[in-house]
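Section 5: illustrative case.
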């Protein structure tokens, strides 16, 4: 993984880093970024840097499943990766305004997002589910969450899926800017549950020995892919990256990376296949 060389904090852009030896501040002009992308084959990628085990920091390094997938793809295509870190809503906003080329942060492919963005082929699958503190003996099924408060990350599809699932509005959803905040509150019993993808929760619970248990099975499964702008540049990247995803799936690299980060679970195929 490549070291993050610069920290730049602002209202929406919390950090800009580097990949493969280059450093670019996310406040640089779009003209400069476009020129660098064309001449140096730079792939501008966004992530939160706080999403374990997808895209997170270990010391000065950005690591994770999605990080390794996109960096492997980029290396095979001859691109240098330039990382920009922000909260999830922030990186999606930067993609929409063409400040970055894609987002490598377990982005679910949805009908709503497909109206705005192009998407790569699927490289992983996510089952949205809820966990609660192990002390909550009265919360064991999704029905038990009626009248309870569940935390989630602001702008995430897990929160949106929970809103769609809870058609009668019987669950109070409290949103946070980061996963850490949302998870800390369920561990501290300040909320009754926390919604995220099952694979990410398994990895987080195992890594930190968290006193959390699953509340039933996932209530929805989604395709995970890389988003791009609906531009000529986006179409070119979509085509190039799709070819690489197919290669990584064929040679077993995707499965290997999944098992590395998700406690030997292969999330690159649908559950039951």
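Designed sequence:
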């Amino acid at each position: 993984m490549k070291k993050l060389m610069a920290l730049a904090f602002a209202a929406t852009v919390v950090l800009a880093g580097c990949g493969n030896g280059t450093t670019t501040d996310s406040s640089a002009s779009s003209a400069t970024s476009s020129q660098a992308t064309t001449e140096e084959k730079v792939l501008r990628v966004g992530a939160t840097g706080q999403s374990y085990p997808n895209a997170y920091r270990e010391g000065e390094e950005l690591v994770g499943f999605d990080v390794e997938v996109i960096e492997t793809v980029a290396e095979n295509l001859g691109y240098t990766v330039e990382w920009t870190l922000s909260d999830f809503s922030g990186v999606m906003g930067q993609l929409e305004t063409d400040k970055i080329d894609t987002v490598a942060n377990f982005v679910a492919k949805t009908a709503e997002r497909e109206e705005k963005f192009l998407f790569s082929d699927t490289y992983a699958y996510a089952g949205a589910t809820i966990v609660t503190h192990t002390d909550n003996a009265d919360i064991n099924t999704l029905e038990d969450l009626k009248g309870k408060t569940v935390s989630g990350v602001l702008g995430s599809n897990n929160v949106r899926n929970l809103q769609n699932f809870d058609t009668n509005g019987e669950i109070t959803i409290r949103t946070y800017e980061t996963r850490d905040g949302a998870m800390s509150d369920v561990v501290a019993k300040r909320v009754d549950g926390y919604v995220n993808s099952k694979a990410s929760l398994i990895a987080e619970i195992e890594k930190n020995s968290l006193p959390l248990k699953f509340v039933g099975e996932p209530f929805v499964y989604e395709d995970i892919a890389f988003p791009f702008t609906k531009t000529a540049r986006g179409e070119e990247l979509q085509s190039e990256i799709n070819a690489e995803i197919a290669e990584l799936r064929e040679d077993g690299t995707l499965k290997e990376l999944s098992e590395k980060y998700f406690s030997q679970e292969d999330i690159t195929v649908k559950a039951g296949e």
